[in-house]
């Protein structure tokens, strides 16, 4: 399904020197942001010039085709014509995978917001502090523990090697959630992550599914976790234990292979890792993958995302068995959680994160469904996985309720 019109992109002409937190308060923009301080860069979008939605196994190809069709009719510099995209985790999801070309694109860098047109809304005033009421989601804590125990049994029986199991929470607000404030807090607290807001999906993911820039491919694969507590000695010990943990290294190896193998079919890639990566609330094992698309390749970043999704960081191994098992054991629709989220331009370049550490804001803005999951392998324990998911809810929880951080 598509709506919208075509037109041409005018040269950049409006520049505003203002904090990122002010730029995101101009209406409720589409957001893709990463970096700290002077290195913070963001792509922002206002309004809707074109929207395409898709479902099912062909959702990647459908959105890529619809965007190409739109771009072909638009008289624009391919690198200036940008779409924000969120795709569902599962082909069977009842939710839509959505691609939005904004009316106005903004680029925030070096303290300056640059837009092609000087038509932005004035920044809104922040909402009053409001504590959200966090309620159980569709999979209770006890049900999650049971699901992990059952997954370990199935792994021991040889049915599957790894499966990633998630649970959800419902954060309910008396007034509509102040999404710009949530975005600004997520970005400030998680500068190494990719902060996003696309079609009500908001979060800060530390995991880059795939990026493509003029033939150069990048990915950051994460799997294997330990909590960051703020105590330097305990944190150093946790990082060392994570780096040496056979359970986490096994969990990570599945994820790294699930990205490197498909990318190697279309690009010359090398992988560096795993290294221990510190996020504000959690350590991860991380492998950075980089390379160059094979000569003559016409693949864009959306097609690359479709090629690697779902990786074993969010699904498991073997992929098809793990996908069926997680659907059976979780028993809920993940929607866009753990699906690709990011942006693409009309040249096919762009960046996609895995939608982790995120929530889906309800259409009335009064609730946010939060998700977190963990990779289960033979040596996993239900209580440890439950604790790990609790740790992974923290970035969203802290951004929704502005509590002091250590
Ligand atoms: C599935 C999630 O995390 C993935 C990414 C990093 C580490 C993970 C882990 O250690 O289990 C997961 O594979 C999530 O945050 O919901």
UniProtKB/TrEMBL annotation:
Catalysed reaction equations from the record: chorismate = isochorismate
EC number: 5.4.4.2
Keywords, in A-Z order: Isomerase
InterPro entries linked: ADC_synthase, Chorismate_C, IsoChor_synthase
Keyword Isomerase: yes
A Pfam family of this chain: Chorismate_bind
Span of domain Chorismate-utilising enzyme C-terminal: 141-392
Coiled-coil region(s): none
Superkingdom of the source species: Bacteria
Family: Belongs to the isochorismate synthase family.
Database matches in NCBIfam families: isochor_syn
Protein name per UniProt: isochorismate synthase
């Amino acid at each position: 399904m598509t709506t919208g019109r075509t037109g041409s992109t005018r040269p950049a002409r409006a520049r505003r020197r203002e904090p990122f937190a002010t730029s995101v308060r101009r209406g409720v923009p589409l957001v893709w942001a990463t970096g700290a301080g002077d290195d913070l860069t963001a792509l922002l979008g206002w309004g809707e010039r074109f929207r395409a939605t898709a479902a099912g196994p062909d959702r990647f190809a459908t959105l890529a085709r619809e965007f190409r069709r739109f771009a072909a009719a638009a008289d624009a510099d391919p690198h200036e014509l940008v779409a924000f995209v969120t795709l569902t985790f599962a082909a069977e999801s009842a939710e839509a995978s959505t691609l939005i070309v904004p009316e106005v694109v903004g680029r925030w860098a070096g303290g300056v917001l640059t837009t092609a047109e000087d038509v932005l809304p004035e920044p809104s005033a922040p909402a009053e502090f409001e504590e959200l009421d966090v309620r159980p989601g569709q999979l209770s804590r006890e049900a999650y523990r049971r699901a992990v125990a059952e997954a370990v049994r199935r792994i021991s029986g040889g049915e599957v090697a790894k499966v990633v199991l998630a649970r959800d929470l419902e954060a309910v607000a008396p007034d509509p959630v102040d999404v710009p404030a949530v975005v600004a807090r997520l970005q400030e607290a998680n500068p190494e992550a990719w902060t996003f807001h696309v079609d009500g999906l908001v979060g800060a993911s530390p995991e880059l599914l795939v990026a493509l820039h003029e033939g150069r491919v990048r990915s950051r694969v994460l799997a294997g976790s330990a909590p960051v507590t703020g105590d330097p000695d305990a944190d150093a010990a946790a990082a060392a234990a994570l780096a040496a943990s056979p359970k986490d290294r096994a969990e990570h190896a599945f994820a790294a292979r699930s990205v490197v193998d498909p990318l190697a079919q279309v690009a010359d890639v090398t992988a560096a890792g795993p290294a221990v990566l510190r996020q504000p609330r959690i350590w991860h094992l991380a492998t950075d993958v980089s390379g160059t698309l094979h000569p003559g390749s016409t693949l864009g970043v959306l097609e690359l995302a479709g090629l690697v999704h779902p990786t074993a960081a969010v699904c498991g191994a073997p992929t098809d068995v793990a996908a069926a098992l997680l659907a059976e054991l979780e028993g809920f629709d993940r929607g866009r959680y753990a699906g690709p989220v990011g942006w693409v331009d009309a040249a096919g370049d762009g960046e996609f994160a895995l939608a982790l550490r995120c929530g889906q804001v309800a259409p009335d803005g009064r609730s946010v469904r939060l998700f977190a999951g963990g990779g289960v392998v033979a040596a996993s324990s239900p209580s440890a996985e439950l604790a790990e998911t609790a740790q992974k809810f923290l970035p969203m929880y802290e951004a929704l309720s502005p509590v002091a951080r250590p």
